Every structure is written in C-alpha cells, then in structure tokens.
Amino acid sequence: MLRFNTNINLIICQKSKVQDWLDHFRNQYGFTEVFDLTKPKELQDFFLHVGYYNMIGIINYELAWRRKQLLQLSDFTLMLDESSLIQNPKAKQTKFILKLHPSHVILLSGTPVGGKYENLWSQCKLLGWKITEHAFENTYVNWTKIETCGFFTKIVNKDDPYKNVDRLKSKLREHGAVFLKTEEVMNLPDQIYQKILVDKSTEYKKFQKNHIVQIKTIKPFCEYTPDSDFFGKDVTPTIELTGDTTLTKILYSRQLCGQYSLEKIEAVMDLIQSTQDRLIIFYNFDAELEVLKKICKDRPTSEINGHNKDLVAYENESNSITLVQYQAGSKGLNLQKCNRIIYFTLPLSSEHFEQSKKRIHRIGQEKPCFYYLPIVKHSIEEHILETLEQRKDYTDELFEELDS
Predict the structure, then answer these.
(1) Is the pTM of this model over 0.85?
(2) 139 Cβ contact partners less than 8 Å away, ≥ 6 residues apart
(3) How many domains does the structure of the chain reveal?
(4) Is the pLDDT of residue 236 over 60?
C-alpha cells in the first residue's frame, strides 16, 4: 500500500479488526492521519482532509456500504482484509465495493474462496479483470442440474467441478494475484492433529436405523435431573428427534454426536482436565454452548458468538477456556496466546474449518499448535471430517443426497 503512494488509502475489514488496523498504522508506522470511519465525526474529518499525504481510513464491511460518501473517492488505494467476504456478488457489501473507483486494489485472504472457483468472480472483477459473471462461470466451472421438489437447482459437478484451471490461474497472475502457502510467507510452528475416536451411543444407532429416537436428558445438560419421583416413577426429561427429511436427519445426527452424546462430552472433559494451558473450543449450536459452559465451570471462560464477545478471561487467565462459535469467530480473531484447539463438533463449511485453525497458527505464535478432534466412530462426523480434509463443504454431499 505504501509503495503505491496514493494520498488516500481505504481499508475495509471485519468489525473486530478495525481497532487492530488503527493501532497497527499508528503504532508501527507512526501515521497521525488515520481515521476510524465507523465514527461519523472521523468520517467527516476524513473528507475534510482529502488531499493530505498518505491519509488512511478504516471501516468494516457491514458499515461501508452505508457510507455512500465513499463512492466520491477517486485515485485511491483500496485494501480488503479477508477479501473472501465479497465472494457473494448479490450481497449489498459486495455490490457497493464493486462500485468504488480505486486506482489500486489489494486483496488479502488466506482462503479467497475456500477452494470454490465458482465464487471467485467478484474478486477477479475488483482486480480489474473485465469478464462478466456469466462468461466466468461458463469458462471455468462445470455445472450440473438436480431436481428437488419439482424445481431444478444448478450445482457444481462434484466429479469434474472445474475446467481451464491453468488458464484461470494464468489470468489471475496477469491481474496481480500471488499464490503462496503460509510457510512460504512466514515461519510458523508445527501443526499437530490428534483424532480421538469416541464410541457412538445407542441413541445414535437407533436414530440411524429408524430416523426417530427418544433420548433422556443427561446430567451435563441441566442443573438438576431427577431419576425418579417420590413414587419411584422415572421422570427424567426426554426429547424426541425425528429425521423425516434429509436436512433434519443430518442435523440430528450431528447433534447426537455433540450435545446429546455423553461419550463425546466425557472425551472433551478428559481433554480439558489434561492441561491447565489456555484452550479454545469451537462449536456450532447454542445448545452446545450450554453444555460446554457446564463442563468448563471450574475454569475461567470467555465466549465469542452471535450474542456475546468477551475475551477478558482469555486475555488475563493462563488457564482460561474460550468457547467460539464458528460463524462468529472462525475468522478475524487473534488468539495466538493459546496453542490448543478442541473441536467439540465440526462445521459443514471447509472455509470455517480452515480459518478456525489459523486463529492460533499466526504471527506471534511461538509454540507448536495442537488440534484435538474427538470424532464419534462410524458416524456422520467421520464423513464430515473426510470431506473437510479434502477442502470441500459437506453441503456438497447434502445436494448429492437430495438428488439421489
């Protein structure tokens, strides 16, 4: 960005990273003309100072498209941190960013499209490649149609998803793309993966056979679970799970490997008790969070999810456990004080999985990074992990099952 040497520089990033970028430029480079464009007063000052040498404005994606004044800028350098957030060309933030008029563009991403070339067009367009979305899809992606409930849906052909890949990479290089692996960019410690196989429950087996099961609520799920009433009758609360569609079958199969799996909970408790180091635990559902909070109650905890962002314990307690929901925290967080991640359950998205690993494996990490994967044997979790290890989304498998 400095080499481009434009008077105006605009950085768009995730909301959680705005302060990091402000501190970075002020502390590492000594810039005084750095503006937080999330604040109306600083946005006003930014436009009053247009023309100053190397002024920098920083704003988050969700707010940028609401700042229509930014469309007035010209002859500036635009830098997108985590550019994968504009891969959906129909999103408001993507449409707005494509309307900007930068003279230079820098896109930063460890997973630009998570291996899905069909989602690359908007970033190509921003880099100056004059190709329409329709032409891009027809030239580089093999599509197939599936029928679901009388409607046809276009999906990428799993067996032969892409074509002209060498040409695509060549065109990207022509427009400034540089492809490097993490180890080629920075010297980071080793990553060590430990799969811990867990027995599947009787309830899981019944559900796979009958697509319906009643499960008794077990003690980790509630503060107090009675086994029987005064007359000896079993009054343990029960929950009925019915997998009457492909979607609900997958959902409940995953939950039977997570929040409803005593075997999984015990395996995670063993991992927690095996160390007093900081831990990060990734999870999917709110119900899983409630289980995790109970089994972590003897340790200081932090949370990152759609309802709460609290890193006090993480920052200040060396034995803290940070509970992170994939959607809210797989991207953008610097958690390199910790070097151990437990995956309570797996995501369906390859991008979320790959990004979650990078929360601890980043600049500033000096210790080997350990990733613990408690996996229910012979279950949907093994299939999900196998798919994620191929850098694919498990939802691709879902479409195939809907078609069959």
Answers:
(1) no
(2) 131, 163, 164, 167, 168
(3) 3
(4) no
